[in-house]
Amino acid sequence: QVQLVESGGGLVQPGGSLRLSCAASGFHFSTYTLNWYRQAPGKERELVANITSAGGSTNYADVLKGRFTISRDNAKNTVYLQMNSLKPEDTAVYYCNAHKVVVGIIWDYWGQGTQVTVSS
After folding, report:
1. Most buried one in 22, 62, 71, 76, CB count within 10 A?
2. How many angstroms separate the CA atoms of 75 and 54, rounded?
């Protein structure tokens, strides 16, 4: 059974930090690109960051560069999102996604999301 379970969300004051984790099981984790998305109320889901299967390449939404860091531990089947200098506009549900395309077939798994609220 495929599972992606996010944790680490919560309420934090502006300027604070959180570290999200996403633990995976039921599929070959190390062969997937891992993505973090977020969706704020009334807005579309947006890509926050991603990391390639071997962890050699990362990409970030331009507005987040320098504040967020994505990493992965393939031995633990876990991907992380370190979020620093948080702002109220970072408030959203954060989702973990595992994705790959093999000979035209898309493999795509999602977690249930974890709420991050940035407020004083």
Report:
1. 22
2. 11
